[in-house]
Amino acid sequence: MTADDHLPGPVDRAPLADGPVAVLANPTAGRGRHRALLPRLLDGLAAAGRPVRLLSASTPGEAEAACRSAVAGGVGALVAVGGDGTVHRAMQAVAGTDVPFGPVPAGTGNDFALDTGFPADPVAAVAVIADALRAGRTRVVDLARMTGADGAERWYGAVLAAGFDAIVNERANRMRWPRGPRRYDLAIMVELARLRPRRYTLRLDGVPHELDAVLVAVGNCPTYGGGMRICPDADPTDGLLDVVVAGRVDRRTLIRVKPRIYQGTHVSHPLVSSYRARTVELTADDIVTYADGERSLRLPVTITAVPGALRLLL
To answer: How far apart are the first and last CA of the chain?
Structure first.
């Protein structure tokens, strides 16, 4: 066994395209705790011997557009410095292309970067990315592609939430008070008081399942929410999606089981079911999904595992 055996995907040493390294950086990620590190991170990337171009964006929409423009303009690689939200925005531009990608974990939640083998320290992650650039080394991993009822498409790398957690996020985003983490805590309290199972239709590789549930997650990777192992057996190189469903769970049971998600032991609870499929069709009323922690498509959606959709600088 080598030191690389724990990393996902086979190594690809095909020559990387010429072009600068475009960098999307979110200075507010992780409540700004890594903001002062950005010059050092850019210097670390420049040590790979390529020009480094910092992309300009002041909103999530502008960030995504800047990444798409950079990729269309022929950059040699794209690097995202931030949390899962920043990575998610950048991912939309490189998914399904040959442009290699490097996520630098600098946010509150860094699930995709950590689940795919990057160091938790941003400086160490940049060193890994720079070394991969110099060596022309990438590893391919799967992504999940979502398609909405209107044909809209989005990609995600970690987990799609389509139950209680998505409902809490949606409420928190509508609230104007309080600010900061307390808003999310209050949203949890409100939605716990309103908790009720909803009727879902799941079609797993064409096989229908009708069920009542309070939580549904579809994972390409194991974790979401900053290390919660909601889909503990998900593997971003197996060409499959893991679906975890908590059924007719009451408030007391949900509160008791939820801490077990950090270890992934919640899947042994008798009211929790796990499935695996290449294509997941998910339908329920009045649910807006959250992918990689970002507000995404409204149900119904079709989610497809796309093998090798992303080349990581790893």
So the answer is: 18
Q: How confident is the model at residue 30 (pLDDT cuts 50, 70, 90)?
A: low
Instruction: Return d(Cα 100, Cα 278) in angstroms, integer.
Output: 24
Peptide bond into 103 cis (omega under 30): no
Q: Count the Cβ atoms, other than its own, within 10 Å of residue 286.
A: 9
Give the residue among 92, 126, 94 at the shortest CA–CA distance from 19: 94
Residues facing 141 on adjacent strands: 310
Per-residue pLDDT of 135-165, as tens digits, reads 999 999 999 999 999 999 999 999 999 999 9
Neighbours of 178 (CB within 10 A): 11
CA 10 from chain centre, in angstroms, equals 21
Average pLDDT over residues 218-245: 97
Look up residue 104 and give its amino acid: V
* Average pLDDT estimate for 206-222: 97
- Rounded distance between C-alpha atoms, residue 239 and residue 237, angstroms: 6
Q: The whole model's pTM is what?
A: 0.93
| Distances, alpha carbon 46 to alpha carbons 20, 117, 205, 245, 273, in Å | 10, 22, 45, 45, 47
Tally Cβ neighbours within 10 Å of residue 61: 10
Q: Cα separation of 257 and 259, whole Å?
A: 6
Decide: helix, strand or coil at residue 157.
coil
Instruction: Give the three-class secondary structure for 249.
Output: coil
Q: Do 279 and 143 contact (CB within 8 A), yes or no?
A: no
- Identify the three-state secondary structure at position 220: coil
For the chain, give the mean pLDDT. 93
Q: Per this entry, what is the length of the chain?
A: 314
Tell me the torsion sign for CA atoms 154, 139, 26, 161.
Answer: positive
